[in-house]
Amino acid sequence: MEKILDGKAFANLLGQNLKEKVKKLKDEGITPHFCVINIGDDPASKIYVRTKKRRAEKMGIIQDIYQMSADTKQEEALALIDKLNADPAINGLMVQLPAPKQIDADALLERIDPNKDVDGLTPANIGHLWMGNHFVEPATAEGIIALLKHYEIPLEGKNVVIIGRSNIVGKPLAALMLEQNATVTIAHSRTKNLGEITKKADVLVSATGQAFLVKADMVKDGAVVVDVGMNHVDGKLVGDVDFDKVKEKTSYITPVPGGVGPLTVQFLMEAVVKLTRRQNK
Ligand code: NAD
């Protein structure tokens, strides 16, 4: 009975509109321009950075990649952020995570000018998010809310269970779900009796990085399931959800790949353009 929530198709639809917006900005002599700082050699990060670059090119956005070596010192990374903050030609910047051990990633995020914070991860923008007066939001969380709205899936009064409490997915999604008047539970690695909690969810979101964590007996009949996980198993990309079995119980479900991933990249691009427009009034 499942219906697939086609994140890829929705991202492409949004992409058409964004391309038009970028074209209009270019007609006014403005080209959105953002920078990704990647420190070290994490193979997944390198793929994500390239995926963003391809999407940016498709949208007409300039993306510079600052690839820093694995032994980069904290001061060197901070100096680069300061330089990009001060450069009026740069509309946005982000640090690709994870960073190597010697780097205090939180301190880097804190140093980004909140007006150029395309990821919505500076303390100022996280504060705005929880206060309900945000301008940029972490892209994955924003993408999930937009996808559910696109498919006209109501959230008001619904029990939403989010598995995962990271700063980039679980926590910001909880803030946005509350804003939609959902009743939100966040579960995590120390949660007891996970299945009993997830079974109460009208909308279940998993963002753990644990392949096949969510089994069919943890899901209520007719639930909406959103799978954020990206895990490599036997050379294949899979989510957190045991898709083939779980889909039999759901009313809607996102696939991996082709679900949340494309929306994350698209909403990052949307943030770049939003900030560019605001900086140029
Ligand atoms: P993270 O490692 O920072 O956080 C994982 C969270 O999952 C933690 O809060 C932890 O408590 C919880 N968790 C781990 N094992 C658990 C278990 N057995 N039971 C319950 N909770 C458990 O990860 P993250 O950065 O939030 O990313 C999570 C996953 O989502 C990863 O697979 C990542 O690749 C993926 N991701 C995908 C997108 C996308 O666009 N699709 C974007 C960001 C992250």
Automatic annotation (TrEMBL):
Pathway: One-carbon metabolism; tetrahydrofolate interconversion. Pfam families: THF_DHG_CYH, THF_DHG_CYH_C. Keywords: Amino-acid biosynthesis, Histidine biosynthesis, Hydrolase, Methionine biosynthesis, Multifunctional enzyme, NADP, One-carbon metabolism, Oxidoreductase, Purine biosynthesis. NADP(+) binds at G164, R165, S166. Residues 138-279 form the Tetrahydrofolate dehydrogenase/cyclohydrolase NAD(P)-binding domain. Residues 5-119 form the Tetrahydrofolate dehydrogenase/cyclohydrolase catalytic domain. Its EC number is 1.5.1.5, 3.5.4.9. It catalyses: (6R)-5,10-methenyltetrahydrofolate + H2O = (6R)-10-formyltetrahydrofolate + H(+); (6R)-5,10-methylene-5,6,7,8-tetrahydrofolate + NADP(+) = (6R)-5,10-methenyltetrahydrofolate + NADPH. It comes from the Bacteria. GO terms for biological process: L-histidine biosynthetic process; methionine biosynthetic process; purine nucleotide biosynthetic process; tetrahydrofolate interconversion. GO terms for molecular function: methenyltetrahydrofolate cyclohydrolase activity; methylenetetrahydrofolate dehydrogenase (NADP+) activity. GO terms for cellular component: cytosol. Homodimer. Belongs to the tetrahydrofolate dehydrogenase/cyclohydrolase family. Catalyzes the oxidation of 5,10-methylenetetrahydrofolate to 5,10-methenyltetrahydrofolate and then the hydrolysis of 5,10-methenyltetrahydrofolate to 10-formyltetrahydrofolate. HAMAP family: THF_DHG_CYH. This is Bifunctional protein FolD. It comes from Lactobacillus gallinarum DSM 10532 = JCM 2011.
